[in-house]
Structures
1.
Amino acid sequence: MTTILHLNSSVRSTDSISRQLTGEFVQKLQAAHPGARVIERDLAKQPVPHLSEQMMGAYFTPAEQRSDEQKRIVQLSDDLVAELQSADVVIIGAPMYNFSISSTLKAWIDHVARAGVTFKYNEQGQPVGLVNGKKFYVFTSRGGVYSSGPAKALDFHETYLRGVLGFLGITDITFVHTEGVAMGEQAVNSALANSRSAMDALIAA
Ligand SMILES: Cc1cc2nc3c(=O)[nH]c(=O)nc-3n(C[C@H](O)[C@H](O)[C@H](O)COP(=O)(O)O)c2cc1C
């Protein structure tokens, strides 16, 4: 059975382009894989906590020495890692905020990027990602255009996600960018049409 992990991170509960497109894509994937299990995690509506001194302390305390509070903190991270590891396909709605991802998506990454759990260093000191064999689809939405043109150098959005996910061993990542959505209704409609065509091509592939 295919397991799909669906993450959203737009602060908008209505009119969000990334929410709309990830929702449509999950529906299409479900139609293509009847019986697929979908795990929904809304990082904006139910944010995971930002990194804290307590979290760091809990992670670096050996399991048998953790206090009840430290066990609770580590449990959330363990649950998020288990969700990620259980998924065959991960779909992320990732709006661009200030040239990169939302702080809530970053907080999720801070919970799942765990030394000895989702990555390790080999004897040569090289990082080895421990999250393998997954297909990631990232639906971005951006006010401007960054995939080409003068603002390309300001894309810390795709570059960051490719970097950090790659560090965890996740290299099969497809980005669908809906760009220029602050450039008027025609630009929005055209960007949405392009993203929906890309989505159909991905389902048909
Ligand atoms: C706080 C904030 C910061 C933003 N920063 C950028 C930015 O740096 N570059 C950009 O092109 N658009 C930026 N935008 C526009 C969003 O990327 C755009 O509205 C996108 O559609 C939001 O995703 P959503 O439709 O899923 O909510 C920003 C929007 C907000 C609310």
2.
Amino acid sequence: MPRIIETIVTTINADGEAHMAPLGLIAEGERWVVAPFRPSRTLDNLRAVPFAVASHTDDVRVFAGCLTGRRDWPTRAADKVKGVVLEGAVSHWELAVETVTEDDVRPRFACGLVHAASHRPWQGFNRAQAAVLECAVLVSRLHMLPPEKIEAELKYLEIAISKTAGPREEEAWGWLMERIDAWRAEHAQKV
Ligand SMILES: Cc1cc2nc3c(=O)[nH]c(=O)nc-3n(C[C@H](O)[C@H](O)[C@H](O)COP(=O)(O)O)c2cc1C
């Protein structure tokens, strides 16, 4: 399996408007592949402006926020490419699309690293951060996964939250649970 890094990817459209979404960057030799599912704004933006910025952050509220309609996180202009960097990121990479492999489900944009910068020391991670990330992935796939699998995974992830979450992880988890509760209510009506 390739190594995949979970990052906050920012892209811009032809009018220069930025869009932020969590995406996994897939290692491929010296390059990083961005693989957005169709349809998505990240995909449209990469076609219009072939650059992406990957911000590495330990603030998991950004992952949970983007999945729950809270995308308005502060940014600043990137150093070398057209795009923006997440303020407060521990480090970031600026990427330029080199090749595109078309696919009906998930086109792949293989990117070269144009610039990398570190901004502050990484402070370590806890289990709750990983749990929020996993829960955010579940929330992005509610329409694809069987309900029993979602409920079983949530039960396990809650253990890490109850044991190790700080205020940021608690807040992120709360946003995700609002979304899960709405999905539960919707699902109960269908059954
Ligand atoms: C940790 C994490 C990794 C994700 N990785 C991907 C990915 O590689 N490709 C993708 O299409 N969506 C991925 N998603 C879901 C997207 O963030 C979400 O669907 C997003 O809204 C993309 O669509 P957009 O560009 O229209 O906003 C991921 C979500 C999370 C929480």
